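Appendix B, Record 12. Input sequence as logged:
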Amino acid sequence: MQHPIHRVRRVEVVAAYRLRVEFEDQVERTIDLEPVLAGELYGPLRDLELFRQVRIDPEVRTLVWPNGADFDPATLHDWPDHAEAFARKAREWACSKATTGPTP
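Logged structural output:
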């Protein structure tokens, strides 16, 4: 199965945890990332100051943040097909952290 290649052309923060993303094929999505912001990589993006630092990586044309968080452009392009799976995984991460407690 071939993995589609998509590239982000523009990104705009439109609200807390919401981005408007435009792709090279003119598809535009408004994506609410709040349900997936959990775990070591994505959890820090709940800090709105960090969240607003989203940029487009000039080489691979995906969204990146200073803490190393990123999303595959194909996933973002087809976000309605992936949103629930990401949210489910984020809930698992949150539950796992709650049961294990903070790391000493």
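Helices lie at 39-42, 48-51, 73-77, 79-100.
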